[in-house]
């Protein structure tokens, strides 16, 4: 366990000296910020028609989740591929570190980075709650909620699970390749498939196969679940399965590397 | 400390190492000598737990390299041929990271101590990306030493260093080798001669010779050839030299020198020198030729190549 933490910490530190991480963070926060501003404007415009419904920040988390499809591949592409290219993988594979610890450490490092970016977006619920109750304090969304508190918590949990699943898949794919660019495009393809493409056959195909496609589609487990305020075990199982699949792929790929 | 038994590794159809058997004791510096592609790196990678062997077994510090890989890795320090460094880290950060991976308490302190050991303490906070080749090699060595391992495996530790750095690196290795087992690979023979207690000559994945550098020299070089240069008539000199007991194959060369051989270990050079002076010649030069470890090595490896090409033909 300590090894996972050591590797995660080094990866996390690395993100803060890499321009890609700053570009990713900037792009995500800017986009989410603009969407938030538009939403606030919309709420104020419709304040009198919006009977009963409390304003929420699912638009922010929804956009954040969508942006992860585009940005996670950039964050994960170098994680193991670059170690292989630079020869530093030899260092890690001859250190007393299990292959799984290496892969999990890389994943956790990426996770900590995404959580840091996500933490910045917490100002949006604080601002929104402040607008609603007319008072701006740090914990106001939780203590004196003017917005839908349960929806806020489930949306954030959903985004965290999406990020965790995407990062695990990205790390797994990065372990297969020595070339970062190859890792980037393969990860992007897999995420686009899970997020969008698989939704089309889910709509068209009838019966059992359609159900399977529908279960595989991530949108149905995020937008229709966490981001709508519902926390269900089936959805959690879906994300945990993807995390396990990604980390397992990564560990196996590292082991296969040893045998070559 | 290191026991290798019938180690074999295939890369697809190509056999990289073939039935290697050797051992190394504590406090011994063993040199792995061979041309590029002989299988030195492959053997080292297997011993450090980087990859499993196709066949055969090996134990390092008493642990099986396949079954107890993690225990082996805890006890081995390894400097790969391409020094694995993170250019975006400072020397101290890098060593602290390695110390943390090896679960050393007070990792920062240990990192600094190890930097001192390889004389890099002044560059502790410089980025590795700006380091020279020699400094990179030294920080690579520091990484291998940080957990004070029982066994040190160094793949071409002096490659790419300038002469002063080579001397310094050899000094450091000899220091470490006093109480630890060191296995190092090199294709520079003088290096093996200089640092190693024992040399394994490996070619095409097989051990072709194994002994101390001195024994190897005398065993394989059955005789020693000497060039003699004097002022005066060489034919007459050749006769005089031929009369000294123990000389063989005396030959007067057209360039005005005389060559002769004697059996290794039975040095007749003092007698020859005396005879030359007594005969009234002015002795200008007397030096051994063509019997360095270099040539023995070339001889050994060339024989194999010839044998192989004959087989192929």
Walk me through what this model shows.
The complex is a heterodimer of chains A (260) and B (313). Chain A is globular, with a radius of gyration of 20 Å. Chain A has one domain. With 260 residues, chain A is mainly α. Chain A is built from 14 helices and no strands. By secondary structure, chain B is α/β, with parallel strands linked by helices. Chain B folds into 2 domains: 217 residues, Rossmann fold; 68 residues, Alpha-Beta Plaits (2-Layer Sandwich). Helix content of chain B is 38%, strand content 29%. The chains are: A mainly alpha (260), B alpha/beta (313). Chains A and B meet through helix 1 and helix 5 of A and helix 2 and helix 3 of B.
Give the helix/strand layout.
The complex is a heterodimer of chains A (260) and B (313).
Chain A: H1 2-15, H2 19-45, H3 58-76, H4 78-86, H5 88-93, H6 99-120, H7 123-133, H8 140-143, H9 149-176, H10 180-197, H11 199-204, H12 207-216, H13 218-222, H14 233-259
Chain B: E1 2-11, E2 14-24, E3 29-33, H1 40-47, E4 55-60, E5 63-64, H2 69-75, E6 76-79, H3 91-101, H4 107-117, H5 133-145, E7 151-155, H6 163-176, E8 181-186, H7 189-195, E9 198-203, E10 206-211, H8 213-220, E11 223-231, H9 234-243, E12 248-252, E13 257-263, H10 269-278, E14 282-289, H11 293-312
Q: SSE order of chain B, as H and E? A: EEEHEEHEHHHEHEHEEHEHEEHEH
Main β-sheet description of chain B: 6 strands, mixed
Contiguous uncertain segments of 5+ residues of chain B: 306-313
What ranges of chain A have pLDDT less than 50 throughout 5 or more consecutive residues?
none
Content-based structural category of chain A: mainly alpha
CATH homologous superfamily heading of the largest domain in chain B: P-loop containing nucleotide triphosphate hydrolases
Structural class of the secondary structure composition of chain B?
alpha/beta
| Residue share in helix of chain B | 25-40%
> Element order, helices and strands of chain A?
HHHHHHHHHHHHHH
- Based on DSSP secondary structure assignment, what is the total number of beta strands of chain A? 0
Q: Biggest interface, which chains?
A: A-B, 24 and 26 residues
Distance between the termini of chain B: 42 Å
Instruction: Tell me the CATH architecture of the largest domain in chain B.
Output: 3-Layer(aba) Sandwich
Radius of gyration of chain A: 20 Å
Chain oligomer state: heterodimer
Report the portion of residues of chain B in β strands. Answer: 25-35%
Biggest β-sheet description of chain A: none
What's the total helix number of chain B?
Answer: 11
